[in-house]
Specification:
423 residues; 13 helices; 9-stranded mixed β-sheet; BirA Bifunctional Protein, domain 2; 4-stranded mixed β-sheet
């Protein structure tokens, strides 16, 4: 405007207007500013404060210094940044251009803080367990393999921290938890990422009922911290995380979804027939647990929109959980599903070392390929010294953030997701 130019400074605290005037700043400095300043430059400005006619807080600039120069243009703030490829590869631009993305990652921090607060307030001890493990366990997944030069052997990035946290129960700690990165060398899709964040916690002298209560407390606190409410919009649904959540047995869910009764004919042959009848693609040679998992994943889980405890799993699906005292065909396990996606997993933990060895060996022999899990002899040695009865709970932090942020792609809640090469 003639010999006056307006600009804005923005930082984490807010925004203020700069009033650059030819006379106040000096002719040479004013011309240099117009010729060299770009959107995205970092500058410091000094001068008296005043308000414009529209009452906007402003600085009448008398001195101006460039602290860092932007060599590339930034996305236009008012248009936003919408190209998914650029958003994920250059997350810094995504956050700069899109306020909703910035708020989502701030909400993620609030969620993790709320989870910690609940556990800390209940006397849980936060610990750190190895990321590199000589034997991977605590789940059924293909690990990333690396070479440990100093020990002259292969090690594995952990697929779970479960077995190390249970060693700490043996050590006498009664309540422990860890928020950590796990790694599974498997596919990438809207709800899976090979590097993901998990909360796992274990409580001595607790059972599945205690874990059910704790899961609801954790998610309720996270929802209130991130959203101020337990009701969250996701696509066409209002997800209501207010306790108590719905409870559904595995048997009832499978019967309704696939027409298979676990207490009738649920042999591999019957499961293959059910898959064929429901047009679920399976390999007929798969073991029974994998066939069950595929039927549930395809026919049942997509129907579980509101927070739901799926409970009483068949024994062979989880070798680390106690059998139900009223029926040894089932285990004391639940998974939490939200919007058709598994978000949490919990057991009453198996602490009988003899049965634990038998179940681990059975699983190792029954599964193959990526599903084969080695027997962890050091863990078995630990629990032979005595592990207290306990409940354990794992929550997928990324998926929890997805549900509370109202997004359906896991890459939207990971700051720097891994992507294929541009080529």
């Amino acid at each position: 405007m003639g010999r006056t130019t307006f600009a804005h400074l923005r930082d984490g605290s807010g925004e203020i207007q700069l009033y650059l005037n030819h006379q106040a700043l000096g002719g040479d400095a004013y011309r240099t500013a117009l010729e060299t300043l770009d959107v995205g430059d970092f500058v410091s400005a000094g001068g008296p404060l005043f308000r414009t006619r529209t009452t906007e807080p402003s600085v009448r600039v008398e001195r101006l210094q460039v602290a860092a120069k932007a060599l590339r243009p930034l996305p236009a703030k008012w248009h936003g940044l919408h190209d998914a490829e650029t958003r994920f590869r250059q997350r810094y631009l995504d956050i700069l251009a899109n306020d909703d993305v910035r708020r989502r990652f701030e909400a993620r921090t609030s969620i993790v803080s709320a989870l910690r607060r609940v556990l800390d307030d209940q006397g849980f001890l936060e610990v750190e367990t190895p990321t590199l493990q000589p034997v991977y366990g605590g789940g059924a997944a293909e690990p990333f393999v690396t070479s440990y030069a100093a020990l002259d052997r292969d090690y594995f990035l952990r697929i779970a921290d479960e077995l190390y946290l249970k060693r700490l129960l043996v050590a006498g700690y009664e309540r422990v938890y860890e928020i950590c990165k796990n790694f599974r060398n498997e596919g990438i899709d809207s709800s899976h990422c090979p590097e993901f964040t998990m909360l796992e916690c274990y409580q001595a002298f607790a059972d599945l009922g205690d874990m059910r209560k704790l899961a609801q407390e954790l998610v309720e606190a996270a929802a209130k911290a991130a959203c101020g409410t337990t009701r969250v919009q996701l696509d066409d649904h209002i997800l209501d995380f207010t306790p108590p959540w719905r409870r559904l047995t595995y048997r009832d869910a499978l019967l309704a979804g696939a027409g298979v009764d676990l207490e009738g004919d649920s042999s591999r042959s019957a499961l293959n027939d059910a898959a064929k009848a429901n047009k679920v693609p399976v390999d007929p040679s798969w073991p029974r647990p994998k066939l069950l998992d595929e039927l549930m994943k395809t026919l049942v889980e997509p129907t579980l929109v509101q927070p739901t405890f799926l409970e009483r799993y068949p024994t062979e699906t989880a070798p680390l959980a106690k059998r139900c005292p009223d029926d040894p065909r089932y285990i004391e396990r639940f998974e939490v599903f939200v919007n058709g996606m598994e978000m949490a997993n919990a057991y009453t933990e198996l602490n009988d070392p003899l049965e634990q060895r038998a179940r681990m060996e059975e699983q190792a022999s029954a599964r193959y390929g990526a599903d084969a899990t080695p027997v962890d002899e050091d863990f078995l040695l630990a629990i032979e010294h005595g592990m207290p009865p306990a409940g354990g709970l794992g929550i997928g932090v990324d998926r929890l953030v997805m549900a509370l942020a109202g997004v359906t792609n896991i890459r939207e809640v990971i700051l720097f997701p891994q992507l294929r090469d541009r080529s």
